[in-house]
Amino acid sequence: MAPPNSNDVEPPIFLESNNPKPEIQNKAIVGALYKALALGEIETVAKLLATDLEWWFHGPPQRHHMMRALTGESDYNEFTFEPRSITVISDDSVVVEGWEGAQAYWVHLWTLKDGLITQFREYFNTWLTVRDLRPWEIGQECGTLVWQSQPRDLYKRSLPGLMIAM
Fold it and tell me: For residues 108 and 122, is the Cβ–Cβ distance under 8 A?
């Protein structure tokens, strides 16, 4: 029998309930990731990520803060990620938004499968809109707005806009 890899390890349960809804569990896992990063608990971070994590970045090249933190290229405290909101947008996706004054506004889109983070998208200084374009049942509208950036400190600043289609 082959030794287990990190994808075979069951992630820790962060909720009191034995049978939480997947979206609630996913929100807790993403929240635990930010907490582990803030505390420098790299082992905990590694347990939450799939070994074949897929990531994508949009923003200035010098702002790849989360990617550098997740790969160990930088110290975990090079940039402090303080989520201002963590929002479940589907049964497998969570959006996290934060801003640090007028110079740093970020949005992270996390995709989870079986309790592990499998995909990460980082948007830095970008106004983001997420729309659900999946086929709908009769009577439902296609292209429903799922989530939109709320950069409270940056409302007077011009940011490039990007629409994400799910």
Answer: yes
Q: What is the chain's mean pLDDT, rounded? A: 77
Tokens 């990531």, located at residue? 55
**Apex 111 CA angle, 125 and 118, nearest 5:** 110
Residue with token string 């296609």: 142
Q: Give the residue from 101, 75, 93, 105 showing the smallest Cα distance to 147.
A: 93
Strands 161-165 and 127-132 turn out to be: parallel
In this predicted model, what pLDDT tens digit does every residue of 120-143 receive, in sequence order? 999 888 776 776 666 665 555 555
Give the pair of three-digit tokens for residue 131: 């729309």
**How many DSSP H helices and E strands does the chain contain?**
3, 8
CB under 8 Å to 124, separation ≥6 — which residues?
57, 58, 59, 60, 63, 65, 104, 105, 106
